[in-house]
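Customer escalation, tier 2.

The customer says the design service returned an amino acid string that "doesn't look like it belongs to this structure." They asked us to rerun it and document both sides in this ticket. The original structure tokens are below, unchanged.
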């Protein structure tokens, strides 16, 4: 079973599938999952991060690793995902935060969250302001747009800057509602993640090199979800780290 979007019954649905012996993979964190998605029997995560299959991000990371680029100084990632309420905003923020950590390859020491609720009620603007232990920083923004796969990125380094935009992937489809949808194959990370899961059975693929992994013990998905609810209710800045 594949779960591609967060719902209020996601935890119960996943638990029911596992109790029935149904293999489960989820395209994001599971609320209330203290095992961080680890399937102990198979030693494989139950949930993954589709952004790892984003062709734009993969090309940006390749360029970032060139010696001439130098060290990462600032990373900005803006995506949709805030139109479906708190849970979809949570997934988009978590994916943006872990992507930022891997892109900068530096531990985070400070993370602050701001949220603005907009009409209709389910619309969320959410922003993470991040600082690493070396002084670099990141900004992760989620807007009240439906598609979290459409991402604009900018990475500034000591040797130059790299940018990508959701619409610069080549051929695009302009929908009747005027939204723009890339139609190139590597512009659909969720579809690529689904293909990878079907072929390998692994939710977290490709794996992250140990030296570049993001240590999530200090801040887990549930911590972010709780803080998101508080920020949306109170309208105040929340310190996560």
């Amino acid at each position: 079973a594949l779960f591609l979007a967060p719902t209020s019954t996601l935890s119960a649905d996943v638990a029911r599938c596992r109790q029935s012996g149904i293999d489960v993979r989820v395209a994001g964190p599971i609320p209330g999952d203290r095992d961080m998605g680890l399937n102990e029997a198979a030693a494989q995560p139950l949930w993954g991060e589709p952004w790892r299959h984003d062709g734009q991000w993969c090309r940006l990371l390749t360029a970032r690793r060139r010696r001439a680029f130098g060290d990462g100084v600032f990373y900005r990632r803006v995506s949709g995902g805030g139109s479906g309420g708190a849970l979809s905003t949570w997934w988009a923020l978590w994916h943006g935060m872990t992507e930022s950590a891997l892109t900068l390859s530096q531990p985070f020491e400070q993370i602050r969250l701001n949220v603005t609720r907009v009409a209709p009620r389910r619309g969320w603007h959410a922003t993470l302001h991040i600082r690493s232990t070396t002084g670099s920083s990141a900004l992760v923004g989620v807007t009240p747009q439906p598609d979290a796969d459409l991402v604009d990125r900018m990475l500034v380094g000591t040797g130059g800057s790299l940018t990508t935009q959701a619409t610069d992937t080549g051929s695009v489809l302009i929908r009747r509602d005027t939204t723009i949808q890339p139609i190139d194959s590597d512009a659909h990370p969720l579809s690529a993640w689904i293909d990878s899961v079907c072929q390998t059975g692994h939710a977290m693929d490709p794996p992250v090199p140990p030296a570049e992994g993001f240590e999530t013990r200090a801040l887990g998905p549930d911590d972010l979800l709780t803080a998101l609810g508080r920020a949306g209710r109170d309208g105040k800045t929340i310190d996560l780290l």
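Tier 2 assessment: The sequence is consistent with the input. Confidence is low (pLDDT under 50) at residues 209-213. The chain is about 25% helix and 25% strand. Sent an explanation to the customer and offered a walkthrough call.
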